Amino acid sequence: MDEHTIDWAALQRLRDAFLEGAAGRADYWQRPSDLASYDETFGRRIAWKWDYVLAELARRAWSPPPGPALDWGCGSGTAGRAFLAHFGPKSVDSLALWDRSSLAMQFAAQKARQAFPGLAVECPSAALPDPGTLLVSHVLTELSPRQTDDLLALAARAAAVLWVEPGTQIASGRLVAARERLRGAFQLVAPCPHQGPCGMSAPEAAAYWCHHFAPSPPEAFMSRDWARFARIAGVDLRSLPLAFLVLDKRPVALLPHGTIRILGRPRILKAYALATSCEPGGIHERRVPKRTLPQEFRRLKRGDFAPLQAWHLDGDDVTGVQRV
C-alpha cells in the first residue's frame, strides 16, 4: 500500500456507507480512484479472507468444476483474482464479472487481465451465464429480499458456489438462511462438518453465529499506511472475521463421522477453554480442561488450533482431541 495513491476521503465515504447500511441503496463507486483505493485496503483484507477459505479447500483436495467462473457483485474483483491466483487461470474456461456498477466491472476486468494475461474475461450486460463456479463476496448486507432471491436462483444453477461474507452475526445469519435454501441441491463442502440442517437454526443457538477468523499477514503490521487505514476504517488489523459457505453438486469426500468445527474464538478461563462447536447434533459449548489437555488448551489460547477436530467427550468435557 502506498499512502500517496490512496484516496483517504473516498475510503471514509465508503466506510460511512457500509456502517450506516446505506451501501445497498445506490451505486457507491463514483470514480476509478474509489475502486483503486478500496482494492488496496478493504479489498486486500477481503482477499486474505478468501485465502483462508481457499487454503481449507486445498487441504480438502477440492478443485473447481469445469466451466466458467462468475464473480457476482464483483466490486474491484478481489474474489475472482484470489480464486484464480489459487487454482490458476487454466482451472476455468473464462471469468465473468458482474456488478450493478459498470465502473466496477471495467476496473475488475482490467485488473484480472493484467494479473492473468490470456484469460478470457467477460462483463455480461444482460442475461448472466450459468456458472461452473459462482463466486460471491460481501453482498448480503446490501441486498433486498428480492435481490437475494434472484441471487439464490442463480446459485442454484451453478455447479459449485464459493461464498464469503463478513463475520458479523447479521451477515452470518443471512448466509445460514441461504445455506438452508440451497442445501437440497448441493453437497456441503465447508465450513459444515455434516450434511444436515444447520444447528444455528435451532432456538437454543440464538446466542451464537457461524464465524471464523482468518490470519492477517505480517505486512498488515509493518506499515504506517495500514495503521492509518485501521484508524479511518475503525478495524482491528489483528482480526479478520468471516462467514463462508462452499457448495458443490458433484460427489465430494465427506469428513469422517464425528468431525466437529470450532466456531469463532474460544473463551479462555483459568481452568479450561470454553469452545463453541458445530456438531452433527447441533451447536454446543464444550470445555477443554487445562489440567488434562494442556497442549490443546495452549493451542486454543494462542488461536492456532485446527478448526476441524474429532473429540472424545465426557458430558461437555473434552477428554481427547484428534485433528481431522
List the helices and strands and how they pair.
Blueprint: H1 8-20, H2 32-40, H3 42-59, E1 69-72, H4 78-87, E2 95-98, H5 102-115, E3 121-122, E4 133-137, H6 145-157, E5 160-166, H7 169-182, E6 187-190, E7 212-214, H8 224-233, E8 240-248, E9 259-268, E10 272-279, E11 282-289, H9 294-302, E12 308-314, E13 317-323
Parallel strand pairs: 1-2, 1-4, 2-3, 4-5
Antiparallel strand pairs: 5-8, 6-8, 7-8, 9-10, 9-12, 10-11, 12-13
Model description:
- The protein has 324 residues and is α/β, with parallel strands linked by helices.
- The chain has 2 domains: 3-248, Rossmann fold; 259-323.
- It has 9 helices and 13 strands.
- It has helices spanning 8-20, 32-40, 42-59, 78-87, 102-115, 145-157, 169-182, 224-233, 294-302; strands at 69-72, 95-98, 121-122, 133-137, 160-166, 187-190, 212-214, 240-248, 259-268, 272-279, 282-289, 308-314, 317-323.
- Strands 1, 2, 3, 4, 5, 6, 7 and 8 form an 8-stranded mixed sheet that branches.
- A hairpin with a 2-residue loop joins strand 10 (272-279) and strand 11.
- The longest helix has 18 residues, at 42-59.
- It is globular.
- The model has no long low-confidence stretch (mean pLDDT 91).
Which ranges are low-confidence, i.e. pLDDT below 50, for 5 or more consecutive residues?
none
Separation, N- and C-terminal Cα atoms: 37 Å
In total, how many beta strands? 13
Radius of gyration: 20 Å
- Named at the architecture level, the CATH assignment of the largest domain is 3-Layer(aba) Sandwich
The CATH first-level class of the largest domain comes to Alpha Beta
Fold-level CATH name of the largest domain: Rossmann fold
Overall body shape: globular
Order of helices and strands: HHHEHEHEEHEHEEHEEEEHEE
Number of domains: 2
Average pLDDT rating: 91
Q: How many strands, what sense, and barrel or not for the largest sheet? A: 8 strands, mixed
Strand percentage, roughly?
Answer: 15-25%
Query: What is the CATH superfamily classification of the largest domain?
Result: Vaccinia Virus protein VP39
Instruction: Kindly state the percentage of residues in helix.
Output: 25-40%
Q: How many helix segments?
A: 9
User: Helices and strands: which structural class?
Assistant: alpha/beta
